[in-house]
Structures are given as C-alpha cells and as structure tokens.
Amino acid sequence: MSAIGVSYAGADKAGGQKLSYSPDVKLVRVMCSGRVDPQFVLQTFREGADGVLVLGCHPGDCHYRTGNIKALRRFRMLQKTLAQFGIDPARLRLDWVAAGESERFQKVAREMAEAVQALGPLALAGQVETGVA
Questions:
Q1: What is the greatest pairwise CA distance in the chain?
Q2: Phi-psi region of 57 (alpha: psi -120 to 50; beta: other; left: phi over 0)
Q3: Are 26 and 1 in contact (CB under 8 A)?
Q4: In whole angstroms, how far apart are CA 102 and each of 24, 62, 93?
C-alpha cells in the first residue's frame, strides 16, 4: 500500500514516537495533496500497490489555500475511474491528517492497511495497458 500526501510530518512524528503502523505502507511525499495527480495514483496501482491512501491537511487548513479541496475533487473523480477499470474504489482513501497528528496518522494508516488486507491482492497483470491508465 502507498500513502501519498503531505502528512509526511505526521508519519515522521509517529515514527519518532515509536507508534507502529503497517510495514506495508510506503510513504510518498508531495508538497500538497492538491498536487497528487490522478496519474500518480493510477501508476501506483500499475506498479503493484494494493491500495493508495492520500493524506492532506484538514479542510480550511491548507497551506496552499485550496489544495485539499482540489484533492477531494480529484479523489471523487478517481473513485469513478477506478470502478471503470474494475478496481474496487475502497482501495483508494482520502483522509485529513495534520502534521502534529501522529496518533491519527497511525490510526488511519492501520485502518487502510486492514481494509486493503481484507480486499486481498489487486490482480492487474495483463489487464491494464500502460498507455490507457
């Protein structure tokens, strides 16, 4: 599973406090959740991720004013797109975690890891053409 977003500080603080979360979580740092291009998410699935968690600042708290609102619009569009590709939209989650919310990061990462584990591996081999998704 990949976690994409600006809650890197929350993840870093969780690590500093020795709060455990799934070792299957791979962090990808971006400057703002609004900068998470839908193609990043699709590429992450193509490269073998079973789930993607996008984390951003709480609404109204975005350093870039409306980045998290842009992320929310993209998330809704991506859920529909994933369904069209035969990917359960539950494999994608958007949530809000502030930099100081290490325990919240741990909780959200654990919930997503459990949800993805319950869904099982995502089998896309030979089903998604690189030029299409």
A1: 42
A2: beta
A3: yes
A4: 18, 18, 18
pTM score of the predicted model: 0.84
In terms of Cβ atoms closer than 10 Å to its own Cβ (0-12, 13-18, 19+), residue 122 is: middle
Other residues' Cβ atoms within 10 Å of the Cβ of residue 43:
13
Beta-bridged to residue 27, according to DSSP, are 3
Summarize pLDDT for 74-109 with one digit per residue, the tens. 999 999 999 998 899 999 999 999 888 889 988 999
DSSP character string of 12-63: HHHHHTT----TT-EEEE-S-GGG--HHHHHHHHHTT-S-EEEEEPPTT--T
Closest CA to 79 of 94, 96, 67: 94
Whether the CB-CB separation of 75 and 93 falls below 8 Å is answered with no
Collapsing DSSP to helix, strand or coil, 2 comes out as strand
